[in-house]
Specification:
The chain is of the alpha/beta class and 152 residues long. The protein has a single domain, classed as D-tyrosyl-trna(Tyr) Deacylase, Chain: A (3-Layer(bba) Sandwich), CATH 3.50.80.10. 23% of the residues lie in helices and 37% in strands. The chain is built from three helices and eight strands; from the N terminus they run E-E-E-H-E-E-E-H-E-E-H. The strands form two sheets. Strands 1, 2, 3, 6, 7 and 8 form a six-stranded mixed β-sheet that branches. A two-stranded antiparallel sheet has the order 4-5. Helix 2 links the parallel strand 6 and strand 7. Helix 1 crosses helix 2. The longest helix has 16 residues. The N and C termini lie close together (12 Å).
């Protein structure tokens, strides 16, 4: 699993001009699901994201987690994070989980994220989405699971 996370002042996702998910202060995650990923993989990554100390404290140091700042989490499915461009100019997505299985896992992952006590918004799976955000910092991190490293 690959997650690109950004600390944001705000973020929103729209589909056909309608806002589907929107947060203020928090984390916007682009979540790519790989062929070897399971719900356990997702739980580890989402627990890690929720606990990351990437928000500034009163001394200006990145020392606070999402829940400590009362933030929210916007999770967007992003299979293109598994685009392999090592050969040719057209990305290959063979390392991404197949769409039906990926959608089930994405929905289970979002349900789990909601149990962590932080408000969670999402974008619809396999939709043509427009994502807007104001990156705060900017702070952008990439988290990859062990399952991803085994496929590489």
């Amino acid at each position: 699993m690959r997650a690109v996370i950004q600390r944001v002042k705000w973020a929103k996702v729209t589909v056909e001009g309608a806002i589907i998910g929107e947060i203020q202060t928090g984390i916007m995650t682009l979540l790519g699901i790989g062929a070897g990923d399971t719900l356990e993989t997702a739980k580890k990554i989402l627990t890690k994201i929720n606990a990351l100390r990437i928000f500034t404290d009163e001394a200006g140091k990145m020392n606070l987690s999402l829940s400590q700042v009362g933030g929210a989490h916007l999770i967007i499915s992003q299979f293109t994070l598994y685009g392999d461009t090592s050969s040719g100019n057209r990305p290959s997505f063979i390392k991404a989980k197949k769409p039906e299985a990926a959608e089930r896992l994405y929905l289970e992952a979002v349900a789990f994220a909601r149990t962590l006590g932080t408000p969670v918004e999402t974008g619809p799976f396999q939709a043509d989405m427009k994502v807007e955000l104001l990156n705060d910092g900017p702070v952008t991190l990439i988290i990859e699971s062990e399952a991803h490293r085994e496929l590489s």
